[in-house]
Design brief:
With 190 residues, the protein is mainly β. It has helices spanning 2-24, 75-78; strands at residues 38-47, 59-63, 82-90, 101-109, 117-126, 131-140, 146-156, 162-173, 177-188. 25% of the residues are buried.
Length: 190
């Protein structure tokens, strides 16, 4: 009687293993990309204080290595410089356009051998179109054409938002002025 059950048990075991392996296998297709729930583009304009432009400067070196000073960027890819800023945000790349808010925060140059920085800042909006703030943090490999940093939160219209901001250097004038195009893609919107 036991010999009659062996083919039945073998068949049952084979079917069981097939069902279990097919339900735990990875999906065969591509993972569907999520679309952002909100997309915004802004420009922020940074004018670094250089000792002679105090009337229109929007940023200043507040920390520098021993071999540098606080009015001229340090050598060696500006390594060790810490800059705070309160820059205007505009909807187009014209510095003289009406600001819709301020970019407020800091960046520090964090590597000697590669021109790169680390950013921590907020877009604080004061327009009728947007109220609140969006917070950003991340590494900025400046020499790349585009680079992504994290959107880590927000307030007001952007309460608890998360996503990615793609930065692109739109213009620069030596070490005194640069303009960033910030393409914000929010994937969590409340």
């Amino acid at each position: 009687m036991e010999s009659k059950n062996i083919p039945f048990l073998a068949l049952f075991l084979l079917i069981f293993l097939f069902v279990v392996s097919s339900t735990t296998a990875a999906p065969a297709g591509k993972i569907k990309a999520r679309l952002p729930c909100k997309r915004l583009v802004f420009y922020f304009h940074d004018i670094l204080f250089n000792g002679r432009n105090s009337k229109n400067a929007t940023s200043a070196i507040v920390g520098a290595p021993a071999w540098a000073n606080r009015t001229i960027m340090a050598g060696q890819n500006h390594f060790g410089d810490l800059v705070v800023f309160d820059d205007p945000i505009t909807l187009d790349n014209n510095l003289h356009s009406t600001p819709v808010g301020r970019a407020q925060g800091f960046y520090l140059y964090d590597q000697k051998d590669i021109f790169t920085s680390w950013l921590g800042f907020s877009f604080v909006f004061n327009s009728t179109q947007h109220k609140g703030s969006i917070n950003f943090a991340g590494a900025d490999p400046i020499m790349n054409k585009t680079r992504d940093i994290s959107v880590v939160g927000g307030t007001g219209d952007f309460f608890m938002s998360r996503g990615i901001a793609t930065l692109m250097t739109d213009a620069f004038e030596g070490e005194v002025y640069f303009r960033l195009r910030v393409d914000i893609k929010l994937y969590e919107c409340w």
